[in-house]
Design a protein that fits this description.
The protein has about 800 residues and is α/β, with parallel strands linked by helices. The protein folds into four domains: about 350 residues, Rossmann fold; about 160 residues, no CATH class; about 90 residues, no CATH class; about 80 residues. About 65% of the residues lie in helices and about 10% in strands. It has 26 helices and nine strands. Strands 1, 2, 3, 4, 5, 6, 7, 8 and 9 form a nine-stranded mixed sheet that branches. Strand 5 and strand 6 form a beta hairpin. Helix 5 packs across helix 6. The longest helix is centred in the middle third of the chain and has 50 residues. Belongs to the TRAFAC class dynamin-like GTPase superfamily. GB1/RHD3 GTPase family. This is GB1/RHD3-type G domain-containing protein. It holds the Pfam family GBP. GO terms for molecular function: GTP binding; GTPase activity. Keywords: GTP-binding, Hydrolase, Membrane, Nucleotide-binding, Transmembrane, Transmembrane helix.
Length: about 800
């Protein structure tokens, strides 16, 4: 296990006391203003802002309750709260994760520095509607494990209290789940099991006291305890691995975790695995929230749009799993009662620890001989306190043997001839000497432990300096090789310095400490190196994409698609070479291929934009050419003096059309495989046909003017025959025949003649036909109506 050693000097104590005072004042102020600043929308209502509920004392050992926060929490008497707690190492993203679960980034404090932000336990109560279901949710944000100047027992207290309070527990970690993480969770869980048993015993004690007390206050205070035996159970567990980008094959994250637990259970000597401690265990992985360094440093300022889409998708999957599994557990007052019990047990020396082997030494009054013998023994054996390095166990036992013999002989000489005093006193002397032996043996072991500790610290500091001196980024393999080399050197340094004490208990203890600390520092350096490598890869992607974009911008558009494809191929090859050159250090990393794929994707997107831009430029050029060809056609067509015979006109117009089309093709032949070219070619044909139609209509108009004198005689004649026509068709047919007779000698083309007559009827006879056939239609309609009435009347009479 990892432990941290520190000096409790006066300055540190004063600073920590001031910090706790400041936190308490801030929490009280926040609690007093909660009603003014609560957030609310249709799916979210904040019941209590984030407040500090538990904080450590100045020595970071005992847990203290913020009574102001407790009073606010007790006000939630009407709410059955689903309690979601999160635990894990410090700066692993616990506070940010809780913020994200409720679609915010700034309620729980998220810090950009290497120092922990969350102290003790913070709570946040809200009503949340998710997928149509309303949850009264109480979030527990906790102080992270392994922070400096904090003991393992303190971390275990935070874990145990949070676990037993929660209806669902999140265990948060970063990057990967390894053997040490499983072992640490198992250790915390087993200690929590023992702690729960202690708490039940405390609860039973309170119940017994309740029967002997009669005040109303005391009865109310213990009424809640009746149900504690039922709720001191382990919650469901969700293990969340943040910043995860490993490949776990075709299995789910939960299956992956259960496989690890099975392997761990096989390797463990214990019959009880983590999977049997928690009622259910799931695992969810979250990708890196962002590839931007500043965004990662200040996640409390990030917007959802700043976050990685993969991260958001996996976060939504986590939210779906959590909200579908949440169950109400306690009301506010019941939560407070349980919390007081757990804190009381944790602070009352009831938290499970290894019992001390230190036994008290009881001094008894002895005869002068007994006192002198004991004094002589102490003077002889005290030599072990002055030597440096200390005596090892064999040397100490030899010294103790000589000291014991000296005390025995002295006692015998002092009581020579006094057998009645000698024999009973000898038993007492041996008892006291045995006790002193245990005491001095322990003291010598402590001196050995202190010596081993100093060698451990020196070895670890040397290792730490060497690791800090490694310039990153470098390849992971190279870094691992250096770290293994430094580890070997530090372990050799420790073994050499403590060779006399390799059989002592503290030798193995500090060897384990050294190995664990080196693993921790190595992991931190590897994480830093991984981040630097990822930054390098991100930079490589940005550089090559910007270069590709810049080179493509130098092209004068439009250009033929084939040429653009060749240019793209050249630039892509050049970009890939540049990417490999910049990212050469990370070419063997697992993340290299992901960033290489990102580079290809970004280049592909830029390629699509460039080709789209070129297509637009081709389209614009084609439009300009279309307008020019239409203009040339109109100019050529205008040279035909109208009216002319239709065949002659049509022949010339078709020639002009063919000429314009050929001109379009010749001008744009290099773009003939473009979609824009094909579309605009069709548009040109349509426009030319429209111009031909206009020219034909103009020719008809001009021809009509020539024969208008003859057509007017037809108009006069048709007016005189109004009364002869009941249907418009008959009228139009008669007019057409009369007109054809009169102009057949003037217009030879039958087709042109028909068009002239048709236009004459539709325009010049329009008013006459409208006035005539509207009236006739009305008369016919009325006649039909009258006829129907007569038929109905006759039918009625016959019936």
């Amino acid at each position: 296990m990892i432990k941290f050693f520190y000096n409790n000097n006066n300055i540190l104590s004063i600073c920590f006391t001031l910090y706790i005072l400041l936190v308490s004042i801030t929490t009280c102020y926040t609690a007093s203003t909660t009603g003014d600043k609560l957030i609310e929308n249709e799916n979210f209502k904040e019941l209590i802002q984030p407040i500090q509920l538990i904080y450590p004392d100045k020595d970071h050992q005992r847990l203290l309750i913020n009574e102001t926060s407790m009073n606010i929490l007790n006000s939630l008497i009407d709410y059955d709260l689903s309690i979601l707690g999160v635990v894990g190492t410090f700066h692993s993203g616990k506070s940010f994760l809780l913020n994200q679960l409720l679609d915010t980034t700034d309620r729980f404090t998220v810090g950009p520095t290497v120092h922990p932000e969350t102290m003790g336990i913070w709570v946040w109560a809200s009503k949340v509607r998710y997928a149509g279901k309303l949850h009264n949710l109480l979030l527990l944000d906790t102080e992270g494990f392994y922070s400096s100047n904090v003991s393992e027992t303190y971390d275990a207290k935070i874990f145990a209290i949070t676990t037993l309070l929660s209806s669902h527990l999140i265990y948060n970690s970063v990057k990967i789940i390894d053997q040490s993480a499983l072992e640490y969770l198992e250790l915390l869980s087993r200690r929590t099991q023992l702690f729960a048993l202690k708490s039940q015993m405390k609860s039973e004690s309170l119940q017994s006291q309740k029967k002997q007390q009669s005040t109303i206050t005391d009865i109310k205070a213990t009424d809640h305890i009746d149900s504690l035996l039922q709720i001191l159970q382990f919650p469901s567990l969700t293990w969340v691995v943040q910043d995860f980008f490993q490949d776990i094959g075709g299995i789910t994250a939960t299956q992956w975790l259960h496989n690890l637990l099975k392997a761990h259970s096989r390797d463990s000597d214990s019959n009880l695995s983590i999977g049997e401690i928690f009622p259910s265990i799931e695992c969810h992985t979250l990708f890196i929230p962002s590839g931007d360094r500043d965004t990662l440093r200040y996640l409390n300022r990030a917007k959802m749009s700043d976050l990685n889409p993969t991260y958001i998708r996996e976060l939504n999957q986590l939210k779906h799993s959590l909200f579908n599994s949440l169950k109400p557990k306690l009301s506010g007052p019941a939560f407070g009662t349980l919390l007081r019990l757990l804190v009381d047990v944790a602070n009352g020396n009831k938290f499970p620890t290894v019992p001390s082997i230190w036994s008290g030494f009881i001094k008894q009054q002895q005869q002068n001989a007994l006192e002198d013998s004991i004094t002589g023994y102490k003077e002889k054996i005290s030599l072990f306190k002055t030597v440096d390095p200390p005596f090892n166990q064999d040397q100490f036992l030899e010294l103790e043997k000589n000291s014991f013999n000296y005390a025995n002989e002295l006692y015998k000489q002092l009581l020579f001839g006094l057998e009645e005093a000698y024999n009973p006193g000898l038993i007492t002397l041996h008892t006291l000497l045995k006790e002193l032996f245990v005491l001095f043996s322990k003291e010598n072991q402590n001196r050995i432990k202190t010596f081993n500790q100093k060698i451990y610290q020196d070895s670890f500091l040397d290792f730490q300096k060497k690791v800090e001196g490694i310039e990153i980024p470098i390849s992971s393999k190279q870094l691992l090789s250096l770290l293994d080399s430094f580890k070997f050197e530090s372990i050799l340094q420790y073994k050499k310095g403590t060779d006399l004490f390799k059989l002592s208990e503290s030798f193995d203890y500090f060897m384990g400490m050294l190995e664990n600390d080196m693993v921790r520092v190595s992991a931190s350096k590897q994480n830093q190196n991984t981040k630097e490598l990822e930054l390098l890869l991100t930079k490589a992607v940005a550089v090559v994409c910007e270069k590709y974009k810049s080179d493509m911008a130098q092209i004068k558009y439009p250009i033929p698609i084939a040429e653009l494809k060749i240019k793209h191929k050249e630039l892509f090859k050049e970009s890939e070479q540049t990417f490999k050159k910049i990212a050469s250090i990370s070419s063997q990393e697992n993340s290299y291929y992901a960033y290489h794929a990102m580079f290809e994707k970004n280049i592909s997107e830029l390629h699509d934009k460039v080709f789209g831009h070129n297509e637009m430029a081709i389209r614009e050029k084609c439009k300009q050419e279309t307008n020019r060809c239409v203009y040339d056609f109109k100019k050529s067509a205008s040279q035909i003096l109208l009216p002319v015979e239709e065949d002659y006109l049509q022949k010339n117009l078709e020639q002009y059309k063919a000429k314009s089309i050929q001109l379009f093709k010749n001008s744009l032949v290099i773009f003939d495989n473009s979609d824009a070219y094909k579309e605009e070619f069709i548009n040109l044909q349509v426009k030319l046909e429209q111009q031909i139609d206009l020219k034909n209509k103009e020719n008809v108009e001009q021809m009509k003017l020539i024969v208008m004198e003859y057509l007017n005689t037809v108009k006069v004649m048709m007016k005189s025959r109004y009364s002869s026509y009941w249907f418009q068709y008959s009228f139009e047919n008669e007019a057409h025949q009369e007109a054809d007779k009169r102009i057949s000698q003037k217009i030879q083309s039958k087709s042109l003649r028909d068009k002239v007559i048709k236009q004459f009827i539709e325009t010049d006879l329009k008013d006459e036909m409208n006035s005539l056939f509207k009236l006739s239609t009305l008369i016919i309609t009325l006649s039909i109506g009258v006829l129907i009435i007569l038929v109905i009347s006759l039918y009625s009479r016959s019936s």
